[in-house]
Amino acid sequence: MNYRLMTIDDYDEVYKMWMSCKGMGFNDVDDSKEGIKRYLDRNPNTSFVAERLTCCGKIITGAILCGHDGRRGIIQHTCVHPDYRHQGIGEELVAHALEALKAEQISKVLLVAFKHNDGANAFWEKQGFTLREDLNYRNKALIDLVRIDT
Q1: Full-model pTM
Q2: What distances in angstroms separate CA 149 from CA 26, 37, 53, 54, one per listed residue?
Q3: pLDDT at 54 over 90
Q4: How far apart are CA 17 and CA 60, in angstroms?
Q5: Which residues on adjacent β-strands are paired with residue 25?
Q6: How far is Cα 80 from Cα 74, in angstroms, rounded to an integer?
Q7: Which residue, of 10, 46, 95, 122, has the fewest CB within 10 Å?
Q8: What are the b/e assignments for 101-126, b being 16+ CB within 10 Å?
Q9: How far is it, in rounded angstroms, from Cα 76 to Cα 67?
């Protein structure tokens, strides 16, 4: 397995994989090709893909979207293709993202997982992420967005 920085050229394959992973949430603006390009342009060193060489070429088996605001890191849209789970790919993607954040002097990272996504919540707990019971997550769309849940 090869791990490398995500580029916008990976978008179509990564988006298709995201749509195959149940329990995730997206929208039509932020997660469009243009939205992900803005994110990667702002955070060029912290998002990664896992690639596997096959007889037909390279395929992306996992991805992690990760960035920061200069103070806190955030992990979003972490996914391993269902056919490649339980091989350590997710853990390796997280390790790459956390090392990249440390290199940018970020000392704390957050993420959001849907409460009903039991698999994701178990994964994040195993990675050492603790559940905060003392916070309320709030959200406000500044434009009309179409929500896409997998």
Answers
A1: 0.93
A2: 6, 21, 30, 30
A3: no
A4: 8
A5: 149
A6: 18
A7: 122
A8: beeeebeebebebeeebeebbebbee
A9: 8
